[in-house]
Amino acid sequence: MSIQVYNPTTPGRRKTSVNKMEDITRKEPDKGLILIKKATGGRNNQGKITVFHRGGGAKRFIRIVDFKREKYDMPARVLSIEYDPNRSANIALAEYEDKERRYILAPIGLKTGDTVISSRGKISVKPGNRMILENIPVGEIIHDIELNRGAGGKLVRGAGMGATFLAIEGDRAQVRLPSGEIRMFGKDCSATIGMIGNTEHGLIRVGKAGRKRHMGIKPTVRGKAKNPVDHPHGGGEGHNPIGLKRPKTPWGKPALGVKTRRKNRFSDRFILQRRKK
Predict the structure, then answer these.
(1) Element (H, E) at 166
(2) CB count, 10 Å around CB of 175?
(3) Rounded CA gap, 98 and 92, in Å?
């Protein structure tokens, strides 16, 4: 991909950049692989706001992405590379030999007309092919990794992400994740070869508040600007400090730099090295 930077012809154009979508080959999604995305406004099933600053935005459709890739040993031809508004990565529309179509994540180097395959045996190591960790060469870049066999890919699914396959020891495979964490997986878990495309996604500058509203994100109000009933930082006359030893969330829990991972989780034994700070 490449980024288009505009001249500051208006205040809204200043410091604004967009994705030129050079890798996209089709604009409209496959109608058989989409669902309507229902707006929640950040509310849960009780009608209470659990995620602030959500609402409005352009209408979206959910693309049904195949993270399991369980049609083993059946080649699929890539028909198009498409944009997905619900994720940072691009997606590829693949058609199998039985004419069934499915969306998959598009890694770097995957182009229209290429053939990809998923297998639990040994197959060629090229971007887009999916296999179990036991059959992947050491040092290979992978993405869309399963935590449990057959559950579908859960980790390393964002734009520009790639994990490094390190070694096999016994029935476990060691993988270095993009965060720097080294973690063990079952050697029979599946992963896809290659690094996910759209690598410059993180360099895009939104530029103006209106564009953020199109994304469905509303303005953020400081906690200290609210009333005490609405936020622990609220209240006081004029510009006052928060008056607490440390910042808190709207629900009174410690915030900003606090570790959120629960202690003594069952999966701690799979982590060989913690992520980098």
Answers:
(1) strand 163-169
(2) 24
(3) 18
Residue 1 has pLDDT above 90, yes or no: no
Q: Calculate the CA 78 to chain-centre distance.
A: 21
Size of the chain, expressed as the number of residues it contains = 277
In 3D space, the residue among 118, 101, 113, 100 whose CA is nearest the CA of residue 29 turns out to be: 101
CB-based contact 166:143 (threshold 8 Å): no
CATH number at residue 154: 2.40.50.140
Secondary structure element (H or E) that encloses residue 212, with its range: helix 209-214
Both 147 and 265 in a single domain?
A: no
The two tokens of residue 156 are 């390393």
> Tens of pLDDT along 184-234?
999 999 999 999 999 999 999 999 999 999 999 999 999 999 999 999 999
Report residue 105: phi and psi, to 5°: -70, 140
Kindly report the pTM of this predicted structure.
0.90
pLDDT (tens digit, 9 = 90+) per residue, 38-95? 999 999 999 999 999 999 999 999 999 999 999 999 999 999 999 999 999 999 999 9
Positive or negative, the Cα torsion across 207, 208, 214, 216? positive
Q: Is residue 25 part of a domain?
A: yes
> How far, CA to CA in Å, does 144 sit from each of 36, 108, 155, 179, 209?
24, 13, 5, 15, 33
Together in a domain, 44 and 132: yes
Cα–Cα distances in angstroms (integers) from residue 268 to residues 182, 263, 264, in the given order: 11, 9, 7
CA dihedral over 41, 44, 49, 53, signed as positive or negative: negative
Residues 228 and 163 in one domain: no
Using a 10 angstrom Cβ sphere, with 0-12 exposed, 13-18 middle and 19 or more buried, the burial of residue 245 is: exposed
Indicate whether 162 and 247 sit together in one domain. Answer: no
